[in-house]
Design a protein that fits this description.
The structure holds two protein chains of two kinds. Helix content of chain A is 33%, strand content 15%. Chain A has 16 helices and 13 strands. In chain A, the strands form two sheets. An eight-stranded mixed sheet of chain A has the order 3-2-1-4-5-6-7-8, sandwiched between helices. A five-stranded parallel sheet of chain A has the order 9-13-12-10-11. Chain A starts with 11 loop residues before the first helix and ends in an 8-residue tail after the last helix. In chain B, a hairpin with a 2-residue loop joins strand 3 and strand 4. Chain B has a five-stranded mixed sheet with strand order 2-1-5-3-4, covered by helices on one side. The relative contact order of chain B is 0.24. In chain B, 22% of the residues lie in helices and 20% in strands. Classes of the chains: A alpha/beta, B alpha+beta. The interface between A and B is large, with 48 and 26 residues. The complex binds zinc ion.
Chain lengths: 401, 98
């Protein structure tokens, strides 16, 4: 049930021999890495390869945290951390790079501090810009290995295509609720890429994000650590990487399952006749409207306008399409119908009334509006930014999640 | 009895747990298993395969005994492990959280 082993490039350590003098290990480093040096599979050669290596971690979040911390501790010479967000209270349940005192700081700042504290020998390159098709190739090209710790489909397709174009290994990990997926996408070494597995993303809002569906904090700890493990094996050229395999982890059952992946000869990125030779617009590709949480072509309503109209005594029907758990944390008095029940409970809604639909961020509500439209509803507005925007801009006392 | 595992968004839609069981009369193929699944859970119609073309949705994959059978013919017989329920027919979906 194992994949036939894919043709491999020579390990990075062989391509880098002999180590230049600055790659030699100091006395302090020999002591620091002694537990590695005792392993014949790592040894001086492997440790020097780690020191000579550079790894870019995209996303300083749940996956990027353990990946960055273990790679720093392991002695990877240069670690790039790309993330454009600031630390938020809701991050701290799983994103161990950041501490309570870091709330409001750029994630790349707290990541640099944490990594520096773990291992001052590591050169940290914080990259605070958002990766897009204009800058990705330039940002990725100085690195040997890329770790995908991003949290959205557009970035995942962007990273895949950029890695295929540049011929770099893309160490993929993703998590949701209690489930994780890990793989190494490395077409240059004969393996498949992310597009071979999933040629197109789900429509926006169909598969909830962790912000909407939740995630058990320790799960990205496990998956991100596996990504660090794969990166280290690729750098030292030992063991079997997850090239051509998809590892599934079920945290509730504590079960791992390894599946074999095949390269798709018709893959537009890495197939026999690739059509993707430059980066494309990934938000367009994923059907995500630029810059907002809503959808472009349907009527939106801002939280300010909704507040004004409600205060003015207007008869607006509020439809809340979140889960009951979320409703229990905070609500603005909307009629609750979880997305999975919408089609069955449509008779609870009056097509003659104006209905403002909201969820947490505006994505699930956009999808609910599509469903309602297909059933003939017309007077629908999507609350831009969802109940998050309401908590941000209207009711600061509202509980957030 | 055939076991089918579903990704989270389809479990929510069908109101089930991670795994459901269906019965298939006649040859056990991907098409007959998915037909049986859609008969038992009509709300899943159109979510795994396109309503009209019956093509697999591109963000889902089918795995059988650890192997990806997504690109194989839907009429190919599935192995005895699936027919007997020893191994589940796995529908795996893309997730993006990080
Ligand atoms: Zn591919």
């Amino acid at each position: 049930m194992h994949a036939s082993s894919a043709p491999r490039e020579p390990p990075l350590k062989d391509r880098m021999k002999p180590a230049p003098p600055e790659r030699e290990l100091s006395r302090e480093e020999v002591a620091r890495y002694s537990r590695h040096l005792l392993l014949p599979e790592v040894g001086q050669g492997g440790q020097k390869a780690l020191k000579a290596a550079s790894v870019l971690i995209v996303g300083a979040g749940g996956l990027g945290s353990p990946a960055a911390m273990y790679l720093a501790a392991a002695g990877v010479g240069k670690i790039g951390i790309a993330d454009a967000d600031v630390v938020d209270l809701t991050n701290l349940q799983r994103q161990l790079l950041h501490a309570t005192t870091d709330i409001g700081r750029p994630k790349t700042d707290s990541a640099r501090d944490t990594i520096g504290g773990i291992n001052p020998h590591v050169i940290v390159r914080p990259i605070e810009s958002r990766l897009d098709s204009g800058n990705a190739l330039e940002i990725l090209s100085p690195y040997d290995v890329i770790i995908d710790g991003s949290d959205n489909f557009p970035t995942r397709y962007l990273l895949n295509d950029a890695c295929v174009i540049l011929g770099k290994p893309n160490i993929y990990g993703s998590v949701f609720r209690f489930e994780g997926q890990v793989s190494v996408f490395y077409p240059k070494a004969g393996g498949p890429c992310y597009r071979c597995l999933y040629p197109a993303p789900p429509p926006p809002g169909l598969v909830p994000s962790c912000a909407e569906g939740g995630v058990l904090g320790v799960l990205p700890g496990i998956i991100g650590s596996l990504q660090a493990l794969e990166a280290i094996k690729i750098v030292i050229g030992r063991g079997d990487a997850l090239t051509g395999k998809l590892l599934l982890f079920d945290a509730l059952g504590t079960k791992f399952r390894e599946l074999t992946l095949k390269k798709d000869p018709s893959c537009p990125a890495c197939g026999d006749n690739p059509t993707i030779r430059t980066l494309i617009d990934y938000e367009d590709f994923c059907g995500v409207p630029h810059g907002t949480g809503g959808t472009g072509d349907q009527a939106e309503i801002t939280v300010e306008e909704l507040k004004r109209r409600l205060d003015g005594g207007e008869e607006i029907f509020l439809l809340d399409v979140r889960e009951p758990l979320e409703y229990g944390i905070c609500n603005i008095g909307g009629h609750l119908i979880p997305p999975g029940e919408l089609a069955m409970r449509i008779t609870e809604l009056d097509p003659a009334r104006e209905i403002v639909v909201y969820c947490k961020t505006g994505i699930r509500s956009a999808r609910a509006i599509e469903t309602l439209r297909q059933k003939g509803f017309q007077k629908l507005r999507n609350l831009t930014g969802g109940i998050d925007a309401w908590a941000d801009r209207i009711d600061h006392t509202m509980a957030r999640y | 009895m055939i076991r089918v595992t579903l990704p989270y968004h389809l479990r929510t839609l069908a109101g089930t747990g991670a795994e459901v069981t269906v019965d298939v009369d006649g040859p056990v193929t991907r098409a007959s298993v998915l037909d049986a699944l859609e008969t038992a859970y009509p709300m899943l119609r159109g979510t795994i395969r396109d309503h009209d073309t019956k093509e697999r949705r591109p963000f889902l994959r089918f795995f059988v005994c650890g192997e990806d059978v997504s690109l194989a013919s839907p009429e190919d017989p599935l192995p005895e492990e699936i027919a007997s329920g020893r191994e589940p027919f796995m529908v795996i979906g893309a997730i993006a959280g990080g």
